[in-house]
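User: For my dataset I need records formatted as: sequence, then structure tokens, nothing else. Please produce one.
Assistant:
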Amino acid sequence: MKKKSYIILAIMTGFLLLGSHPLTYAEDTQLITLVKDLQKQVMTLQKTVSEQQVKILDLEKVRVERKDVQQDIQVPEDFMVNLKESIGDSDKWLKDLKFSGDFRLRYEARDMVDSAGKATTSAMRDQNRFRYRLRYGFTKKFNPDMEVGFRMASIPGENVVPTRTTTNTTLDNQFAFKDIAIDLAYVKYTPGWAEVGPVQGLEITAGKFKNPISHQASWIIWDGDVTPEGLYEKVDVGLLKTDDLEVNLSALAGQWILEEGTALASHDDAELYLWSGNLTTKVKGILKYPIETRHHVTYYDYRDFASRLGNFGAAGNNFVNGAGTLAAEDFNIWDIYNEASFQFDERIPKLTLFQDYVENVSNHAWGGLGEEESSAWALGAKLGKAKKKGTWEVSYTYAQIEANAVPSVFTDGDFTGTNERGSVIRGSYALTDSLKLSSAAIFTNNMRGDQDAERRLFQADLIWTF
């Protein structure tokens, strides 16, 4: 900086000497003005250099501080070493361990009336109640091919008869503690070596597991809360995939345990064997969004089941063999389900139309009663899907379930089992990604007996998932 000042002063001195020479033609006033301008420029230059020096010092200070911070940060290897020293081998258990669950609060109102508009019997009285459902569990992957799952669920402990189609608990009984039970306990094997050629996946599951059928068909046969026990095998195959068409097939076989045999009473094991095929298609190019279809066929073979009805007693359906009551002799059931989904515009939610038909080909009943009461069917539509915040859905279904079509202990509990026909209206709105508001209205009538007796059920739910 000093060197630059000397140069500038030398230049100024030269100008002054030149101005004092007799050969110079410039005026003295012009020289004085020039000198003042040069002085101003020197002062501005000095100020700029000072400011730059301050900035350089600040940057150097920041660089030193960042270096100190970086030295304090642990590398991943150091973190894992410290973690292992703190928790030992527990980190192996925490890896690939996932917890999940849901909690539902429900207000439920039931109205039972006959043709005169009065309550039919004391057992079918009007009822208002508050209920909740809590489910919580985990899944753990021990390797890419093996998974173990466990879940607990609330149950209606006030019932003497074991429940299969509900995990609701009623707020009742003078603040008594509520019951909870094991809802899922299974092991799942999905070998990677099976994914060869068109085979997209193989799954073998054993224990007490989520129903692999219920999400592929309607609730005529299965209530959504039923968790079967036994073993099933499932394979997914990709049949065709082009720019305009995709076709996939899944096949399922199940060997499910219904009741263990007892040597004392000479009872055989009661079991259910099933075989199922599910064909899905996705067609592009016809509408703005793909057209999706699903075609599902299942055969159920219940073995030594109807002969052990005493262990499955349930009032008002095909498991009571009293006067004027239907009771199925056996269950060999075909279920055919079809579904199609369309979306015409992004402003209009997806529309899904579905149809379900069920036939019990073992349609002979004890006592010769109701040999025709062996079929069930449902038609319905759903608009939208309440999944993310701000999304919604509404649906309508009309169903008719004859008395001997399906085992009444497994079908939808809100529809009250078999020997019923009626409408189901549902709606949901996602308040957040994890909180949903839902409602339902269910209107049913008996198909035999007092056909004018109508049951009206209204439900309002708040559902949290986590």
